[in-house]
Design brief:
The protein has 300 residues and is an alpha/beta fold. 41% of the residues lie in helices and 21% in strands. Strands 3, 4, 5, 6, 9, 10 and 11 form a seven-stranded mixed beta sheet that branches. The chain has a two-stranded antiparallel sheet with strand order 1-2. Helix 1 packs across helix 2 and helix 2 crosses helix 3. It is globular, with a radius of gyration of 22 Å. It starts with 7 loop residues before the first helix and ends with a helix. 30% of the residues are buried.
């Protein structure tokens, strides 16, 4: 048994290290200094009586004791989120923070403009957009809503809206003029995801369509890829999005012959508990209406 009872702060810190994969990532997510996280983790391990993680040059791995603690820590995080929701006072005024996790493209195209709409219709709301490729945990309260590229498979997660649209190749006008009228995929210089995101569908589709596929430029940052595309470095695959904030503005759609067949899917997801909050429901309905309108435009 631990020499002292474990507190929620102890468990929360351990969970941040376990899920972040490193002390530095945990420090960023908890908004603490790296030395503070290391010291508190060491104190926790001293209390437990055995190491919970193995420190390595590239991050941390759970020990056998850490693996035993992880499921209980995850349940504690869910209960903490449940307690927070249950203790919130009901109010008729929409106010407070709603966090939305999303991939970088949808965050830029959909969520930033949504914030402008919410400032007019519900000025008491604060929208916090967490843009990244990783999927955050709604069960543990890392966000209230999520725009995901895959449909959730948990019964505790609700799919509130969805959007499907085709993807196409886009390039700057200057770069497009250098290509044949209907270029083959292997004639194009491609801009794609760099590790650790090379497994994403766009990379896989291009690799399947082009023998010995070698991109001209890659980055782990979506907006860096887009900047390279606009600068004429090459072409990239983007969603065919018929709205004013589309990332394709100023770019030219290439008529590939033939092109890789990839379809974008986007799912608006909430945990059952968070979906009960009026402010979360309001933001979800506003965002769901945008997705539905885009789907109708695409179908038309």
């Amino acid at each position: 048994m631990p020499s002292r009872p474990l507190s929620w702060d102890d468990v929360r810190l351990f969970l941040a290290v376990a899920e972040g994969g490193s002390v530095s990532q945990a420090a960023r997510s908890l908004q603490l200094g790296q030395a503070t996280v290391s010291r508190r983790l060491a104190d926790m391990e001293l209390s437990v009586g055995e190491p919970l993680v193995t420190r390595r040059a590239q991050g941390c791995e759970l020990t056998a004791a850490g693996e035993r603690l992880l499921p209980a820590a995850q349940r504690m995080a869910e209960w903490a989120q449940e307690a927070e929701i249950r203790l919130m006072r009901p109010t008729h005024r929409l106010e407070g923070k709603v966090r939305i996790a999303a991939a970088p493209g949808p965050a830029f195209e959909l969520l930033a403009p949504l914030a402008g709409h919410l400032r007019q219709s519900a000025p008491g709301l604060q929208l916090e957009v967490l843009a990244g490729v990783e999927t955050l945990s709604l069960a543990r309260g890392e966000a209230e809503l999520s725009l995901r590229l895959e449909r959730p498979n948990s019964a505790e997660l609700l799919t509130l809206a969805e959007l499907r649209c085709p993807l196409a190749a886009y390039a700057s006008p200057d770069y497009a003029r250098q290509l044949p009228e209907r270029p083959r995929p292997e004639q194009v210089d491609w801009i794609v995801w760099a590790p650790p995101y090379e497994h994403l569908p766009v990379n896989q589709a291009l690799a399947a369509a082009i023998p010995d596929f070698r991109p001209v430029f890659s980055s782990d940052d979506y907006l860096v890829q887009l900047a390279a595309c606009r600068a004429g470095v090459g072409a990239m695959v983007l969603a065919v999005a018929p709205h004013a904030h589309a990332l394709t503005q100023g770019l030219v759609r290439l008529a590939l012959s033939p092109g890789p067949t990839v379809q974008a899917e986007l799912f608006l997801v909430a945990h059952r508990r968070a979906a009960e909050l009026p402010r979360t429901r309001f933001v979800a309905e506003a965002l769901g209406a945008i997705l539905q309108d885009l789907q109708h435009q695409e179908a038309g």
